[in-house]
Write a structure and sequence with these properties.
Elements lengths: L12 E2 L3 H8 L1 E3 L1 E4 L12 E8 L12 E8 L12 E8 L12 E8 L12 E8 L2 E3 L7 E8 L2 E6 L4 E6 L4 E6 L7 E2 L2 H6 L1 H8 L6
Parallel strand pairs: 1-3, 2-4, 3-4, 4-5, 5-6, 6-7, 7-8, 8-10, 9-11, 10-12, 11-13, 12-14
């Protein structure tokens, strides 16, 4: 699957105090920020564009309704970050801790999560298109009511992940590790391997009310 990846401008402006910059400008455009702390910071409707963020600490920050476009985030702490009702496009998040990340009611297009911990992340009622989860942990992650189109789970672990009431098309689980999941009917339209299908049999039986014995 082809995902449009972020491309950085030839020159980026160094930001030495990201929190103050966001307070003043309410945006980050064409910039580079390294080892910045905006944990618990609150700024709704902020714009991030054409920028690179490395070793960012955004733990429990509240950035609802953000617009995030052409961004690379790496080696960062995004635990509990609230990005609900946001729009993400051409964004790559690498080697980051994203447990409890709040993205409910957001639109994600051309987004990659690579080697990220997304346990208990909230993707409820999201629209995901051209999204890759590569080598991610997705334990107790919640996709309830979301639409997934051209989404790939690549070498990621799915464990107690909720897909209830999802709508899927061209969504690929064949190279994921499925330990357990919720909302099996939400996988309608997805691709799974024959081996995965056998493993999903107990969940099918449970949803259909079929009793079985070993």
């Amino acid at each position: 699957m082809n995902v449009a990846k972020p491309t950085m401008p030839a020159e980026l402006t160094d930001i030495n105090d990201l929190q103050q910059h966001l307070d003043d400008a309410e945006s980050l455009i064409g910039a580079k920020a390294d080892n910045q702390d905006i944990s618990f910071f609150e700024q709704p409707a902020v714009l991030f564009s054409d920028s690179s963020l490395e070793r960012l600490d955004a733990t429990s920050a509240k950035l609802e309704r953000a617009t995030i476009s052409n961004i690379i985030i790496s080696k960062s702490l995004l635990s509990g970050l609230n990005l609900s009702q946001s729009g993400l496009n051409r964004t790559t998040i690498i080697d980051s801790r994203c447990d409890g990340l709040q993205l409910q009611i957001s639109k994600l297009k051309n987004v990659q999560f690579i080697n990220c911990k997304l346990d208990m992340a909230n993707f409820r009622h999201c629209n995901l298109e051209n999204v890759i989860f590569e080598e991610c942990s997705l334990k107790d992650t919640d996709y309830y009511g979301s639409t997934l189109k051209n989404v790939v789970f690549l070498r990621s672990e799915i464990d107690a992940t909720n897909f209830d009431s999802c709508k899927m098309s061209r969504t690929d689980f064949t190279r994921a590790t499925i330990v357990s999941l919720k909302g099996l009917s939400g996988l309608k339209g997805a691709d799974v391997s024959a081996e995965q299908l056998i493993g999903l049999a107990p969940y099918m039986a449970q949803e259909l009310g079929i009793k079985y014995s070993d």
